[in-house]
Request: fold
Amino acid sequence: LDHFERKRKREARQVHKTSQIARNTIGLKAKMFAKKRYQEKATMKKTLAMHAERTNKHKADAPVAEGAVPAYLLEREATARAKVLSNTIKQKRKEKAGKWDVPLPKVRPIAEDEMFRVVRSGKRKTKQWKRLVTKVTFVGPGSRVSHPSTSASSAPWPCASPRRM
Reply:
């Protein structure tokens, strides 16, 4: 009786021991240990999925009516969606055509990634703090331009032109 209780407790504590080993092993031994644990977890997931499959209640297929049309032949609303998509693409093309015209055809807030392009610098091209203006914008006389040192990423100063070009 006592033997089974001890065995149960030992197995319960084993989880802590393996996690401690996983934390402290280094190098090739750690890689091998991680691979072994990965395989164990995969098998465990498969067995759990099998058990779940057994208890699952699958929906029975409804009897097919005579002369029924399959789902892939039915008319979908994809045509309407495609039309909307093509219209948006056309609109974007129109905007791109007049990219460098400063008097903008419509006044709207511009996203930062639309206004600036990230310039990668440094030997390995890892630094990404520089921004290049891609869309010149007009800022009214009442707008206050912040000092360049305040923020490099959200800096409005390279494109803040107080007069129209």
